[in-house]
Amino acid sequence: MVLVPRKDDLKERIRGKIIITLFLGIGMLLIPVILTITDPMFIIAKYKFRLANGSILHQLLESEMEGGRYAIYLFNITNADKFMSGEDYKLKLEEIGPFTYVEYRSHDKLKFSDSGEMSYIPRMRAQFILEESVADTRDVQIVMPNIPMLSATTILHSSPLFIKNLYSIIVRELRSTAIVKMDAHKYLWGYEDPVLTVANNLVPGLIHFKTTGILDRFYDNGTKYQMVLSTEEASKFQIKSVTKYRNAEVWSAEDIPDSTTVFNDTYEGMAYPPLISTSTPINIYRLGVCRTYGVEFCGIKSSEYGPNAFVYKFRNDTFYNTRLCDGKGFCPQGIMDMSRCFFGIPMAMSKGHFLDADPALMNRIEGLKPDPGIHSSHMVIEPKIGLTLETSLSLQVNIMVGDVSYNSDASQFSNMVVPLAHFKIIQPELPSIAITALRLIYITVPKVVLITEIILVIAGLLLLGYSVKLIYTYYIFTIQSIDEKKAETLLVKKDKN
Fold first, then answer.
1. Chain segment 104-115, per-residue pLDDT in tens
2. Which one of the record's GO molecular function terms can you name (predicted)?
3. Which of 11, 71, 157, 256 is 20 to 30 A from 85, alpha carbon to alpha carbon?
4. Positive or negative: CA dihedral 291, 297, 299, 300
């Protein structure tokens, strides 16, 4: 005997199926919406790249990492005798290089606090890369401005007349000249000149170091720093303060700080807070320079890792100078005064080859060829996570010579900004873990999520379609049940009659 289900039982089964299919169908359609709104991969990436004990960034910061590559070009003087004699009005320069170095950076005494801060003592060293250089720095002879002599002569130009005269006599006796010839290694990493001792004896405490070189000052091992950065999401990687411990042989808690600088909207350039916008204010700080570089948004660029990234360039007011103002309203722009960073040595930073600088700076210089295609600088930042994808900087180190007409050996350089070296700085490739994260966030996961969303939407629509069919069937059964009950009622009435 075959049992035929009652219509009421069928209706109940259909009703149960309707509830299940509607729930599943709506759920499958809601999941893609939730995935789009919440972006779970971004949440995971933010957690992975948080600044905290045991995080990925903690592990990276604890190990020595490559900070950048420096291609250095020195400006060799080709007419030293004619310029010093006054026969040539312009100083003729030729660029010799590149001399390439890799900077390695580590973070000592790295600590995370409960107050949303991270502190450490940065350590930096530079390693020469011969195969990427024009030659060994020790094998290349160069003719360059004498940094110690021109610096001391400039620093003393405002001293009393008898000190200036005494200084000039001693300098001549020591045979210290305004132009020197030596190998590139000494010029970069420091050479001695007795004029430093003379200047310090005349004005005690003026200069505390014995050697002077371009990289020697940037990598001053006699100065220690402690940096404090924010670890909070809204201001992650933002520098809060930098404390300098001058002439500290061994850094310790007992050392007396020389100075503390507090910053706003300033970063080291490695990374930034997540979800930055084109209007987010950004300044870059570099140890050894002790000045900030203001940058501004200038466009959008696609990257090989997937995201559209923000492109930044130096702000016009970054290279602003007042030191060379003549008191008559003329202030040649395009250079950044860095003398306070170099303990009084009148050094200045500019764009490569005085690009975008006041043309007056090259009135007595020959050999510079500013080219936006070569000497422009830019940074590319991924805005979602805040990683710096690409950095290319073209910067030039100069010496600002003041009114040194009182000294006949240096007078030809009076009131000149003399180029010393041009730096081309390139950011190294991102760590593999960062590249993997970017590809997951922007390429792999979005594809998987898109396919999943399409499948869920199709499945959800099919289930909702099936639910409609079940609702229609349920409706038909309900109508039939009503008709059958009416028929039964009529039969009962007839029987009674």
1. 998 989 999 988
2. scavenger receptor activity
3. 157
4. positive
